[in-house]
Protein 1
Amino acid sequence: MTVSDAGGVVYVVATPIGNLEDLSPRAQRILREVALIACEDTRHTALLCQRYAITTPRVSLHAHNEAKRVPELLERLARGESLALVSDAGTPLVSDPGERLVRAALDAGIAVVPVPGPSAVLAALVASGFATRRFAFAGFLPRKGSERGETLAALRGFPGTLVFFEAPNRAADTLVDLHAALGPRRVALARELTKRHESVLRGQLGELSLEELRGELTIVVEGPSDDARTPAAPEELDAAADRLLASGLSRRDAARRLAAELGLPKRDAYARVLARAKRGAS
């Protein structure tokens, strides 16, 4: 089935993260024109629709009903109806439900069209004052246990800025864990973005003291400085090079990945990969 044969369109519509004035004219038009709005919470989206006099029918689509709801929505799309996918705030699918619908629509040959707009990730990043050329969004960290430790260990070698989401009641513990894993890097804690009480707390991991917090938080951690990076042990370099080569990457691409993951000069990374490739061939 081709896209033109599939009928409807799924519009992935970004909505305000706080200030309702941030809903773009294009997003308003799409929300009025589609047959249905799939919402993370219909009650929350109702407030936005009331603000802009949007009367389009709404249906819930969240983590607990997505598996059941998607086939129903696909049937409507196949009949030629278009729908908008929205989350409670910001860009859908970014730590929010909707992936199952988008994937199923694409598999069925149905067009998926993004309608860009507000994003807490980008808003916090550009307000942090940290480098934006390279950054990684890690969403919500695993709550506890080995998975949390493994995630933080994997992020330690990333050479750019790191962005996380966190609930206010877990923020203090998360900052402690980030300090333990990443060291005394600079950090910016953005809260209530675009709302009346918007603020960005800035400091250093291990030193930043938290006041009483409310609302979902976005934590931005500065990337490591070249002199702050702990050199990887030879056996760690060898294991990483072997893993990248085994994944099917070319020597050049494996070297690029090795340099990015472990902070090596590109020349040293290529030499390490070349040595391991020759060792494996012998």
Protein 2
Amino acid sequence: MTETGQKRVLLAAPRSFCAGVDRAIEIVEKLLKTHGPPVYVRHEIVHNDNVVRRLEALGAVFVEHEDEIPEGEICVLSAHGVAPAVRDNCEKKGLRVVDAVCPLVSKVHAEARRYADSGHLVALIGHANHVEVIGTKGERPEQIVVVESPEDAEALDTNGQPLAVITQTTLSLDDVASTVDVLGERFGDLRRPGAEDICYATQNRQDAVKEIVRKGATLLLVIGSPTSSNANRLVEVAQARGAEATLIDGESPLDRELLDGHRIVGLTAGASTPEGLVQAVLTSLAGRGYEEVEEITVAREDVHFRLPREVYA
């Protein structure tokens, strides 16, 4: 492909931090300011290496299990949520728990309990090894089954129980549609939360990517960490629509060959990626001749989640 015309960048909006990520990071920052380090965080507070490194420099200590935290210390629960057994263990250890779980994740946990306690088998559509799914399944482990794909849906045996469906928040309506369709065909009337229970940020960021590709971007750069589910989904959304797409960290220099043959480049960032990395990549792209930037806006986000009272205690 030969390059003709003006090089330009189509910049996604919304992009970067969602309200749940904003809240989680602010909780850790405020606790560090009020109590001083160390503040222990169970699991990465959000799935972004840049954010984790910055908070570590301020005195946050990230651990994979609450047993690693000394008795009496603060334990921040990450945005992804945990199983009830984790909270129970924290209480037994005398830890001071501060809940940074995204309220939309907490809402999915509540749906899981409600459906399971009303006699339903709960199909949790998501990635079995993702920390959010592990936490949600832990609400009612005997009555929740993880369904990762349409193939899993075809193989599901409900033993005659009525079926309810919930989803991992970092998946959009599009991501789960084919799996839900199979479940609907096999089991008829499914109980499911309303569309408003889908994470607004996941859907908006994917919709922005679709619009960027529709407007002619042949390459999409997604700033995010490999562990970020929603960032990886953005890559897949662009690829499914015929564009090349790749995950970048926003800090390393762009490969010289990456932009070859692409006049229009799309740029977005996962929901746990700081906006500062977006601006750094824009500067890098400008240095490669992509000085014209057009923001592609598909939604306005004005969501804000209240901080837990423990932050002010």
Protein 3
Amino acid sequence: MTLVGRELSHFQILEKLGEGGMGEVYRARDPRIGRDVAIKVLHAEVAGNPDRLRRFQQEVEAAGSLNHPNILAIYDVGAQGGMPYIVSELLQGENLRQHLTGRHIGRRKAIEYAIAMAHGLAAAHEKGITHRDLKPENIFITEDGRVKILDFGLAKLTRAEPPGGSLAPTVTAKTEPGVVMGTVGYMAPEQVRGSAADHRADIFSFGCILYEMLSGHRTFQRDTTPETLTAILNDDPPPLAERELDRIARHCLEKNPGQRFHSAQDLAFALESFTGQTSGTVLPRPAPRRRAVLAALAAVVLGAALFLLGQRWERGRSAPPVFRQLTFRRGFIQSARFAPDGQTIVYGAYWDGRPAQLFSVRPESPESSALPLPGADIFSISSAGEMALSLGRVPIGWTPYGTLARAPLAGGVPRELLEMVQEAVWNPDGSALAVVRAELPGGGSRLEYPTGKMLYQTDGWLSHPRFSPKGDAIAFAEHPVKADDAGHVSVVDLRGKKRELTGEYRGGVQGIAWTPAGDEVWYTASDTGLNLELRAVSRRGGASRVVLRVPGRLTLQDISRDGRVLVTRDTMRSSMMVRTPDSDRERDLAWLDFSNYRDFSRDGAKVLFTDYVEGAQTEGAYLRETDGSPAVRLGDGYGFGLSPDGKWALSVVSSPPPKLFLLPTGPGEPRVLPRGNIANYGWVADWFSDSRRFVFNGREQGRRELLFIQDTQGGEPRAISGSEDLDPMRGARGLSPDEKYVAAIGTNDRKIRIVPVEGGSPRLAPGTKPDELPAGWTADGRSLYVYRSDTVAPVKAYLVDVASGQRKLWKEIIPADPAGSYGIEGLMVNPDGRSYAYDLGRKLSDLYLVEGLK
């Protein structure tokens, strides 16, 4: 039944504009003010359900409270004759779906539209209103270029559109957790699972729309609805052509809500960096009859604005920060702190490959003075001028520890206090220390304050504890796993109540300090890659902001009482050192910025490696001739395990669920191998001589680390290591020459095991020591090459007879350039002992004093 010619309340219905899943839409006239409006009259099923009608009215009233140029304005809501209706502004134009169909809108327009959408979302989220069904059909582009978000607060009621309506089906249900709600193709993973969803679900949907505008393709669209939902849960879209825009889109599309942009306002800010805009509104083009008046008015306003800006430019402009470099030697700096005078700076450095040494420096002098405390690093300096030191700490891995000691800044012999301490910090009055203990029984680390009293404990690891200026709380970085420094910033009060201030940063979080006022916590972190940026978050948590971003990796060290900042700028690189039979020296065959060696051919002519940080952008498996020829990219993922015939390499793509690929080194197609019950792969494998089977380590569902054998011709992997948990072989050629045994590491005692391939109990390798790693077998199968990766150069490698336990030094590995090196990993020795390879991590630091940061 048409309503044209009738009246609803005082509105005169003029014509029918369309019909959708919620009801019919009409153009109407409000005679009281002479304005045309749009009226949506809802279907009888809504009117006939009192509960739905009540909730509908509450949500429309909430949406009606919004007043933003990028949100459809709702003027009124009511009911007449049993027909509920909504009165809104009348728009002329088309929705974004129509706008995208059959045309390419271009990068500039896509960013303009995205900024407007982000500001509209931010305005709604600030009032606690979440859209929950954001999609191109609900984004309207007016004829004069404005962007409007439609149907705020209506997502709980939407249902599948009939033919001719929405192109994407909408799943409708109530909002309790466990019930799926949203539009297929634009739903966030938590909506797909039926979990509770908040404003971050809108950010995910926004990311889908942004990606679609920039690429011209729907982000997760598959042939069927179940396949689309599975893609949302497990897949990532192909990268966009422009890296920074791709980074923003992917930050929106994180599977974990805590890893997305924290707010739509942060998202708008990130997008505005591409245009220089400061407002999310896309301004309309004035109608021709108004242009002359508006142009004249604009000229007057512009002239006045320029005059005022000219008068206030010098007073109002924000001065850029001032950097002063304090160190000029080659090596890396572990930590740096302001002394109580605010001018003297004490730092611990490993210059030119030498052990740790403490130095002091002042901004007015380029010379650093060594303090008579060799082998020491600085933790903290109290308000009374007493240092908390770490003695004997080896800077290897993410959780180095040493002996905690205290010593006067003016000089004196350190007094040792505690062993196995990872971090320590003085409280504001210098009366007591908070400490982080590492390597606890059963793993994990804990924060103690005062010493001996546990304040907080985690299965992962903690770093950078810092007292608030008032001493009532401690901020720290919390890292879920020991394999990397990914994590988030947290704060705990002195009663042990902990709060997370930020979401997780997958690229790492390092360095924490409080502002002098104690209202913010500053830290350095990254969503992806190694290059950390300086950020700030309120003590109450919420959205963070970028304080400083520079090329390279920043690490925050300290903030003085007057707001000056100490940072190190670090250059991180992984060198891939290879020694071949025809050479008398090692060669660095690193390709991009972080090349991780994984395997090399039996003749030493080729090396297989992975590059996976800034240069590679995405993880890639590469093959390179050891003569220095250019590297060839074989495919995506972490490459490892080069077959003896040189025709195949293995690669793991880790996005869940992980996939193990067989990559051809020449012509051919990659193949995915059956995964069986494996939850994670260890990125280490050794092939049998038939180039058909290989042994590798992985983690089963249920978190057991085992060894497996897999046949490339078919079948799932078969466990061979029984019930004992075994750690990764760490790059070793673990398979013995007779192919009867595999060398691996026991998880609990960190000792080398000899594991029978065809069944039987593993046995300890006699003559080997805890934390030693196998680096390969000798050609006769009687001895293992072993070494330790948790020591700085020189690294000693030994030959150990696996029958008698007799051991002898094989080689002392000393990098030609030890400056900044922090350990050798993945040593692999060919059976003849004439060729070997390893990774050499290197970090070169410069210490800066920065003034003017806000």
Protein 4
Amino acid sequence: MQHIPVMLNEVLDGLSIRPDGLYVDCTFGRGGHSFAIAKRLDGGRLIALDQDEAAIAHGISRIEREGLKHVMLVRANFRYLEDVLRNLDVAYVDGVVYDLGVSSPQFDEGERGFSYRYDAPLDMRMDQRSDLTAYTIVNTWDEETLKKTIFRYGEERFAERIARAIVRAREKEPIATTGALADLVKAAIPAKFRRTGAHPARRTFQALRIAVNDELASLKVSLQAAIQFLRPGGRLVVISFHSLEDRIVKETMREAEDPCWKLQQRGDLPCPKKPMLKRVYKKALQPTEQEMLNNPRARSAKLRIAEKLS
């Protein structure tokens, strides 16, 4: 399936690209946003990060083929954004973009173990150098930890039933494939809740993917680094696809805009911290009806944009 970058025009407009600027794409994927940004640069540079070996190989091939000398790819989890930029002697950047969705090839290439649509080894690692896999979680974590993980990261109401079913099943033999896990989860959910909506295993698979890749903690760390490295007037643009990610993005931007907003009884006292960002839009932007028709994976996307203050 062809990779279609989500909300591309909104991302490009949101970045307010300067042709001679320096931009960072923290989630290169298949380069949909990166190469579109690169086309708007004249004298500027783009640094793109991805922890996936296949994504980096694909990107390097295209960069060499098209002679895009102003595009640099770095294989790294975006939680290490600060280290990457410091190692490159970068002091400031003009914009940072995140597309937090799992890239299309990761879902479409069944052997990666991300999707319940294919029967494949339980893996779900975005960085193949990592030791932790979905297989390890499913077959070694205790029932209580499994329940909490599935409930927290998948927002799955039947997390307790699913965790119990996993533990009982693995006592007989290891749960080795996505197909086996999907069938097990489906059977654990009451029948009347399986008849409509998305696949019954969707939330559990989401939870395992987030846990394997420590996605939420990485996002918090990376967003803070991005804000620090933005020059005044620089833009932070983030697309999220589920409520857990969006909550982190929303709260990070809001706290950078009003560092004392969480203090319930501040009264008339001035905030001792200086604001760092101004949200360009108070509410998240969403895809157009036409984009959702053309690209169903855009349906749950939310785009938030903020600008660095002086």
